[in-house]
Amino acid sequence: MTMRLLLSLSFLAFLGFSSSAQVISHRSLGNSLDNLVRWNTVYSEGHTGFSLSDLDSGEALYGYNAERYFVPASNVKLLTFFVAQQMLGEEAPAVFYRAHGDTTDIWGTGYPLLLHPSFYAHDTLGGWLADRRGHLVYHIPAGEEVPRYGAGWSWDDYNYGYVYERSALPVYGNRLYLDFRPEAVDGEVSGLFGSPPTVAAALIQNARQPRAISRREGSNQFTVGRNFYHPGNFPLERSLSVSPEFTVEQLDAAFPDVAVSLGDAPRPPRATLQQVTTPLPDTLLRKMLQVSDNFLAEQLILLAATERYGWPDEETFFSYLTDTLFVDMQLGEIRYADGSGLSRYNLVKPRQFTQLLTALDRAVGRDRLLDLLPTGGVNGTLEKRFDNRPEPYVWAKTGSLSGVICVSGLLRSRSGRWLSFSFLHNNVMVSPSAYYHEMENTLGWVYDNL
């Protein structure tokens, strides 16, 4: 046998061994993750899906129920973030207007930062309105009023601090914001303060009320209980009941140099209107993703719809997203019903989230994406989660509803490999902490071994 033939046979044998080793490696990965996910007794009574992919190549590494649909809760905000980046980029229309004489007519766009207590430094529209003089008419044409709740929302969540009504021109973030200083700090007067001022100043004490603060549905009259003034309750945010009349009242009080009234003039063609353009700061996106702010997510969808159609036509916009944008991305069919994930009508597959995260990584840039997402063991909704390794290794969006626990995001392994993952759990009957413990075990194993 010639030396050349021996070398050829040796090389072929090496290739066969390498191929066999790769198959065994994939099989070993599948077996290990099967033990952690598929055969996990904590997950056994619910419905679990998991998808794991290489972030740089997009290669699917493991899937369990990865092609089944789940209610994803606030993981939907990853879709909303992608939509905002694709449709809006770095700026958006804050308001459309037409000035004639001493009158300025305005039409809303969904802009969420006007007088918002968390965004005073970024409120472009507030500064513009402060410079107005004369008469301001806020128009809501027939058929354009934004539904206050999204499709599939639970109406009786209004008394909590995570469901806020939507509108074409929100004021104060459509929320009551309260803070309390029991003692003077740096010479400031102690006591209760908040916004909108007219609502914050009209609280009614009710010592027999068990809740710290509550309101009747459809009203902005808040009653507070005996233990309301405990410092641990503050800062406090609760949803307001929003109407065009309420918006006009608040604008009239906040901008005394203009007389504000309500109108219903049809929206003129966009080309005939002027607009106030506002930047979309990462501060806004970070709050939506890290704190899981439902209000900002919903208003971003309205803004994006306005950018496309000239008014916040969310129904047509959702149809466009599911029938065109996501199809062009080859995500497959998604049921996308709201921007925040409060709706149980949303249905997404784990595989679709890992594919979406790969698209976000390329469109947004990894460093920026990591900065915007919650970091395990560090901040946001993951501040006390995924802290079971000596360094941060998970950056992800959480999602929760009654019976729903979801986490989708990026993972950096000990070897430096970047992965995308999506854990979706529905029909959960046990403590969320038990599920998070098991997810930490799984993703910790991925960190150690990939």
TrEMBL record:
<dbReference type="GO" id="GO:0004185">
    <property type="term" value="F:serine-type carboxypeptidase activity"/>
</dbReference>
<keyword id="KW-0732">Signal</keyword>
<dbReference type="GO" id="GO:0000270">
    <property type="term" value="P:peptidoglycan metabolic process"/>
</dbReference>
<feature type="signal peptide">
    <location>
        <begin position="1"/>
        <end position="21"/>
    </location>
</feature>
<dbReference type="Pfam" id="PF02113">
    <property type="entry name" value="Peptidase_S13"/>
</dbReference>
<dbReference type="GO" id="GO:0006508">
    <property type="term" value="P:proteolysis"/>
</dbReference>
<comment type="similarity">
    <text>Belongs to the peptidase S13 family.</text>
</comment>
<protein>
    <recommendedName>
        <fullName>D-alanyl-D-alanine carboxypeptidase</fullName>
    </recommendedName>
</protein>
<dbReference type="InterPro" id="IPR012338">
    <property type="entry name" value="Beta-lactam/transpept-like"/>
</dbReference>
<dbReference type="InterPro" id="IPR000667">
    <property type="entry name" value="Peptidase_S13"/>
</dbReference>
<keyword id="KW-0378">Hydrolase</keyword>
